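Blinded run. Sample ID left blank on purpose so nobody reads anything into the name before looking at the predicted structure. Input follows.
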Amino acid sequence: MSIVITPPAILLSEPDADLVRALAADVASSDGVMPLNESARLALGGYAHLRSHWLARESGPIGSSGRSLLGYAHWDGREQTVQIMVAPDARRRGIGTALARAVVGHTSLARASNENAPIPESLMWWAFGSQPPAQGFAASLGLRPVRGLLVMSMTLPCEVSRAAGLPEGLRLDSYRSDDLDRLVEVNHAAFEQHPEQGAMTAADALARMSQDWFDPAGLLVARDDAGRIVGFHWTKIETVAGTRRGEVYVLGVHPDWEHRGVGRALLDAGILHMQDRGAQAIDLYVEAGNPRVVHMYQSSGFQVTSTDTAYARVPAEADQEQN
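Blinded prediction complete.
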């Protein structure tokens, strides 16, 4: 049977969303890494802004065995990023390439009728875990690595000083519902140069706060004498494959308070919080191109365990300069 790529959908039906979640779980089990990031997984549930979804199925009557889901593509128009996954037993059949061409045809920089349109330089294609098949797929599309995201982990328990505190004039507290606007403001200021995290809106934050794992007590904040948030450590704890794992979900400090020990104090407080609540390990994600922050995490006991890579089409002149 031939492969059918569905037209782009801005909202998936619940049955199709469940199929995508099941496919993601199968791919994660096979490859050892989740093929979709949290933002893409949230978009499956209907929370989506400037998103499109494509499904790859075998042709056949609806309801027949030939309608199984073989692949999926997700495009985030706000961040101009693409994520693609293909069922482990359906690879090397051109499904990933077909999905990629469908995404390219959909973008505003290419005509939908031109299947051979060049890939826009603005699109970034994420490969989680940076495994050889993903590297080969990116190369087949003429893409080069342009960004790295380090996955760092530490096992618990660990030695963290409970005496280490915030600078004078600041106090540690937990998030309150009336902190939302200030939280978003500090996040934007702290991550102004970060294409994803810096774009977080109040709606984005609320969507994450609606998840089962969210605990307001685990969103630690540093307040000044006026009660305003100047930094925060948003922690996350989930049970994964029988292990209770914590995550440094977001750690941000307002630029006015940088280089004054606020980030380190919030990091230590978050580690202790997760350790006290039974976490057996902690993970985090950090830009490979931010050595200062990477060093802070390494000095706290985190080690690099894998790397996520973003690929893009490099302009010819830039490619020549690299060579």
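Unblinding after everyone has recorded impressions. Residues 14-31 form the longest helix (18 residues).
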